Amino acid sequence: MEDCNGRDVRETIEKLAQQIAEADGSSLYDAGREESKAPIRAKALRLLDQRMRSRKELVERLEAVEEFPTSMIEEVVDDLTRSGLVNDELFASEWVRQRFASRGKSKMVLNRELQEKGIDASLRADALEQITHNAEEEVARKLAAKKAATIKSVAPGFNAKQKDLRKVVGVLARRGFPSELSMNIAREQLENRYRELEADTD
């Protein structure tokens, strides 16, 4: 997800910095505390400028810096959430869209990844709705066809054919596609490959 932020993030960062500066004249402004939070905020903004991050991920990265107090980390992340720089709903949607399109990951794997990023169940479900059954099946078919294309000869017997089948199924299984879907598509693409090889020998 290296391209999730871009210009919008930088513009928001500039606005946030301006808002913080303008707050200096407010009676609610604690100059000392804001000064203590400044390095935490700077680190957080650098991380967000690299790519979009979930709240949990950002907090964990900041907590890895020993000199950053946990209470101030939470305050900084709360500020960033209010400004829109930290948005788990948008993060989840972009994570699913990009990793499904570019890496061919299944809904099951993407759901697990989002859970690890601290995204709650309702937001995960909403984000995953953008992947239809047909879209997931098409991605699985492309992956299976690519793997089947590496097979150079028609299997001479049952055991050899099963070995080829396991190779194709394995590609889909590792990406978390449902077992029945994986097996059906693997068989389909393996048979297509065998027909291609047989046609080449005619």
UniProtKB/TrEMBL annotation:
Gene3D superfamilies: Winged helix-like DNA-binding domain superfamily/Winged helix DNA-binding domain
Record-annotated RecX second three-helical domain positions: 87-128
Subcellular location: Cytoplasm
InterPro entries assigned: RecX_HTH_1st (IPR053926), RecX_HTH_2nd (IPR053924), RecX_HTH_3rd (IPR053925), Regulatory_RecX (IPR003783), WH-like_DNA-bd_sf (IPR036388)
RecX first three-helical domain: residues covered: 41-80
GO-annotated cellular components: cytoplasm
Chief localization: cytoplasm
Keywords assigned by UniProt, alphabetized: Cytoplasm
Database matches in Pfam families: RecX_HTH1, RecX_HTH2, RecX_HTH3
GO BP field: regulation of DNA repair
Limits of the RecX third three-helical domain: 136-181
Function as written in the Swiss-Prot or TrEMBL entry: Modulates RecA activity.
Family: Belongs to the RecX family.
Protein name (database record): Regulatory protein RecX
Biological source species: Corynebacterium amycolatum
Gene name of this polypeptide: recX
